[in-house]
Amino acid sequence: MRDQKLWSFHILAGIAVGLLLGLHMIIMHLDRTFGIFNPAGGKPIAWANVAARSQSAWFTAGYILLLGAALYHGLYGFRNILFELSPPPGLKKAINVLFFLGGLGLFALGTWAAVAGCLTARAL
Description:
Layout: H1 2-29, H2 47-55, H3 57-83, H4 89-123
Helix pairs in contact: 1-3, 2-4, 3-4
């Protein structure tokens, strides 16, 4: 039952990654078609647009959601690939602990970066 729940989260995380990356592609690469996403107009990587997006709590939340979904989806998928090699139980436990702690550490670092970027952009 636990594996089924984790697998369902894996699928949902994959859907979230697809949707959030699709939105990212629209914002960053279809600017001429959907210019409403770049408040300062012009190129999406122009400093005025980057600063405007960085000040938005919605973009910050989106970055954090994308980070969490991508980390879970990637690490859980890699864990399953490694478990298909039939490692001994001790190594399975070590893989679980390593991926859990590594994922938490990367998520904390990425969340800090996104929030710090938002707060810095608002202070400017």
